Amino acid sequence: MSGQPSVLIVDDQANIVDMVATVLRFHGFAVTTAGTAAEALRRAAADRPDIVVLDVLLPDGDGFQVCRTLRADGHDVGIVFLTARDGTGEKVAGLSFGGDDYLTKPFSVDELVARVRAVLRRVRPAAAGASSSVLVFADVELDDDACQVRRGGRLVPLSPTEFKLLRYLMQNPNRVLSRGQILDAVWSYDFAGTSNVVDTYVGYLRRKLEQLGPPVISTRRGFGYVLEAPR
């Protein structure tokens, strides 16, 4: 894979896989997925991910056995169990079998990202460094941990949605992004309106950024928007 930290998501519920994959990609991770224990072991051997987000209940076995097998085979991958089984015994078992963390469903996506990042820092310091919380494009700097944006060293006050929109654009510089792609990445499963909201928020974001410098967000009519260096 690329220099991005990599995550293998193992779950047989497609809606969970899609949601977790979307969130982790948004936060800068390269993502692969598996729906069974057997596929998880094949993927882990082939791709050597930094982190495995692992369900306990799988169609052909359980996540505990996957974890035991990975450890027995010498894989030092970070393992975060993500499961509906919330008993203390299950948590103790998961950690005893070699898991690094245990998160129960339903879960907060923000907590999941924080847990994955914490495990990544412990098991792959170099990979964690590669996923720096600071994004830079031209004279725009976005600090994900501090939730701050600066342009030319000056603070740009953004709403949470404007911040998410800018982060997505900065994660995909010089790439034309459609309204649909932006809706999926920024509003994801919580939005039921129309794509006009994208135009509205791009307008808000443009005005705030352009108070401190030349335009960096361009419109490609009929296609979408692109973050590109000032001309």
Description:
This protein is an alpha/beta fold. The chain folds into two domains: 122 residues, Response regulator (Rossmann fold), CATH 3.40.50; 94 residues, Orthogonal Bundle (Arc Repressor Mutant, subunit A), CATH 1.10.10.10. The protein has nine helices and 13 strands. The strands form four sheets. The protein has a five-stranded parallel sheet with strand order 2-1-3-6-7, sandwiched between helices. It has a four-stranded antiparallel sheet with strand order 8-9-10-11, with helices on one face. A two-stranded antiparallel sheet has the order 4-5. Strand 12 and strand 13 form a beta hairpin. Helix 2 runs parallel beside helix 3 and helix 7 crosses helix 9. It starts with 5 loop residues before the first strand and ends with a strand. The model has no long low-confidence stretch (mean pLDDT 85).
Q: In CATH's first tier, which class of the largest domain applies? A: Alpha Beta
Strands of the largest sheet, in order across it?
2-1-3-6-7
Please report the number of helical segments.
Answer: 9
SSE run: EHEHEEEHEHEHHEEEEHHHEE
Cα-to-Cα separation, first versus last residue: 33 Å
State the CATH architecture of the largest domain: 3-Layer(aba) Sandwich
**Which quaternary structure do these chains form?**
single chain
Large-scale geometry:
elongated
C-alpha-based Rg, rounded? 19 Å
**Total strand segments:** 13
Indicate the mean pLDDT: 85
* Helix-strand makeup class: alpha/beta
**Residue ranges: pLDDT <50 for 5 or more in a row?**
none
**What is the CATH topology of the largest domain?**
Rossmann fold
Helix content estimate: 40-55%
Largest sheet: 5 strands, parallel
Number of domains: 2
Strand content: 15-25%
The CATH fourth-level homologous superfamily of the largest domain: Response regulator
Pfam family, one: Response_reg
Domain OmpR/PhoB-type: 132-229
GO cellular component, one term: cytosol
Keywords: DNA-binding, Phosphoprotein, Transcription, Transcription regulation, Two-component regulatory system
